[in-house]
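Researcher: We're teaching a course module on how sequence relates to structure. For the next exercise, students receive a sequence and then see the predicted structure as tokens, so they can try to spot secondary structure elements on their own. Here is the exercise chain.
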Amino acid sequence: MKVKVIVIALVLTGCAARYTQVYSGPELPKSDVAMIAGELQGTKPWPEFREWVVIRRVDGTEIDRVLGEWVTKVQVLPGQRTLEVNTDYDGYGTLMQVTAELFRSILNQTLTLDAQAGHEYRIRFRRTTDRTVLPPTTGIVYWIEDAGTGEVISGAPPASSQAPSP
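Model: And here is the predicted structure for the students to work with:
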């Protein structure tokens, strides 16, 4: 019984980590497509709380869940791409999860990029707070970086997340 559980866990983990193909036809070599992955963060002060970017739509086409999980990694054909993203998380109580699910569609943000064949991109995010208004408002800022160079390709990180200039 223990072996079956381990095998099932390994299979599910491997499937969850795969890139979801969002183009028609057979799977192409990595050198012919662009790979896009959402960022995973652990959030303090609760180390068991994790939050990650979910890719909801690519070029207007809704992305279905894979094995009951939201998609965090996609492979796309080169060219201009529009991504609709938001975040998902674990570590909240059930009531918070149900409430957040009701508001997910209004929290989506749209990013665009000119995807290059053979490149890998990372969708990053940071929570922000505007303390210039009362009550303070919070939000999430998303941007896309080239995973190889760290160059910002789309959007812009909040000022506190940008690397200092030399």
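Model: If you want an answer key for the exercise: The CA atoms of residues 33 and 117 lie 5 Å apart. The two ends are 57 Å apart (CA to CA).
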